[in-house]
Amino acid sequence: MFEIFKFGIPAVEILILWAFFYRILVFFEGTRALQVLKGFSYLLIIFFLSKYLAFNTLNWLLTKFFGISIIALVIIFQQELRQGLARLGQGHLFSLALEESQLVAIIEELTSAAFKLSNERVGCLIAIERETKLKTYIDSGVGIDAKISAELIKSIFMPNAPLHDGGLITRKDRIVATSCLFPLSDNPNFSKIIGTRHRAALGLTEQTDAIVIVVSEETGEISVASNGRFIPIVNRERLVNILKSLLMVETKKEK
Asked: What's the pLDDT score for residue 232?
């Protein structure tokens, strides 16, 4: 019996390592860090080949390189590590405080606001707080404590309104701040082809798990930013479904 248990230990270890590396790849998917990980894996393959083929000089150089690579990885992945650590210990925001019917009502208000602004070619930036608290960005703006309303959001973002610049942040069923400053993404795949509003939406979702609704002032197009990516919105039903899929899954899992 003990021999069978010993034989199964390597299999368990392999399974644990597989799950660990799989979660790392999922976490870094779509980011520049994934490309760095790919390059690092190629060097690892070369390292093992050099050892097998007795390329001593190459093997020695790679050994020294891997010795200092931990510090290099911390520097390269500092944004991703900060994002991951910020999510630790956070509770499920919507599942703890809101019923499903309340969340549906909030989604309807946000959707109505986005399409009203889109029809009038008025730009907007609406961040929905999830697990990661957005206190730093809330403090950068003007505090508000008001129930989420399509008409209120529309009035905030009208061009001559005093608080229309910057982003608006919602928490649960409340608007908590507006005129907030979001971090700009430096992703080279997007920064040269999108405007400041979209780069801010992308930047916030790269550093937190927030969802950001963006309306382009130039085209009126609506998009949703999540996890450092943009999801194009073609109609009202699409936006409702996207928000439900991103917000209501957490509620169902918790229940």
From this structure: 93
